[in-house]
Specification:
Length: 241
């Protein structure tokens, strides 16, 4: 990945000129749309419900504890808050140091200050392997893959995480899907990132399913298709070695 790509992403998620807007876009508790705390907590509660659902679907006993989780792009930490009682370590990988700091502040205020392992992404996705010191049980990413600079970048993220997962680890990842609607078409060059970062990346449904397979995961199901915003949530597990 070029420095230009890294700078373009950091330029939005860390250095955007309107800080209040950036915090709102990063889903900070109590900011902008998220002054409504129930609305903010609903992000994480929805994620937790999805993990419970996939656990039941696979016939696994209710959450064995403690789990090791990794979230790609935790933002203000709504998923972190919801998952706190089920995890003993929670790696938060983010491109923005200020978002990781906010996660740390928020979760310490909730009395779980030891849980978060912040990982600042400063280069290619595979470089996180140096910082993620434990094998993973859970992989979470909501409202992030749509902000990647390319489809292949998302593939690099999946492969990086896959290499860190225990066999049978469960992933829940939300993407924007590409159904030909021009609004959600992926950008074709990085110079478009700042203007189009909200809808920078998307995948056809079968394309993402196959990308999961190519990345060492076994796809299980898809839920929550929302055609207003082209969201879909994929569930998958790490294939046996
Ligand atoms: C819309 S927020 C989503 C926050 C959280 N996942 C949620 O659902 O509330 C997007 C987050 O992804 C982070 N992000 C954007 N691009 C990233 C990248 N390439 N790698 C890691 N994090 C990234 C942003 O800094 C921000 O924290």
């Amino acid at each position: 990945m070029s420095t230009e790509v890294q700078q373009a992403i950091v330029g939005v998620w860390e250095k955007y000129e309107d800080e209040e807007w950036r915090k709102d876009q990063s889903h900070w508790r109590g900011v902008g749309r998220w002054k409504d705390d129930a609305r903010w907590q609903a992000i994480g509660q929805g994620t937790l419900a999805k993990f419970r659902m996939i656990w039941r679907h696979l016939g696994r006993p209710p959450f064995p504890e403690p789990l090791v989780a990794l979230e790609w792009g935790p933002g203000g930490g709504s998923n972190l808050l919801a998952m706190r009682r089920h995890c003993r370590a929670y790696f938060g990988v983010d491109i923005a140091a200020s978002n990781l700091a906010e996660c740390g502040r928020m979760i310490a205020e909730e009395g779980y200050g030891d849980l978060l392992r912040p990982v600042l992404l400063t280069a290619e996705p595979h470089t996180i392997a140096e910082s993620v010191t434990e094998k993973l049980d859970l992989f979470i990413s909501t409202a992030v893959f749509q902000h990647f600079p390319s489809k292949s970048y998302g593939g690099d993220v999946l492969k990086a995480v896959s290499g860190l997962c225990k066999p049978g680890a469960i992933g829940v990842v939300q993407i924007r899907y590409d159904n030909g609607n021009e609004k959600f078409a992926p950008i074709s060059e990085i110079s478009q990132y700042k203007k189009k970062h909200i809808t920078a990346n998307s995948y056809q449904i079968d394309e993402f399913w196959n990308l999961l397979r190519e990345s060492g995961f076994q796809p299980i199901m898809i839920s929550d298709i929302n055609s207003a915003v082209n969201y879909a949530t994929f569930y998958f597990q790490k294939s046996a070695a």
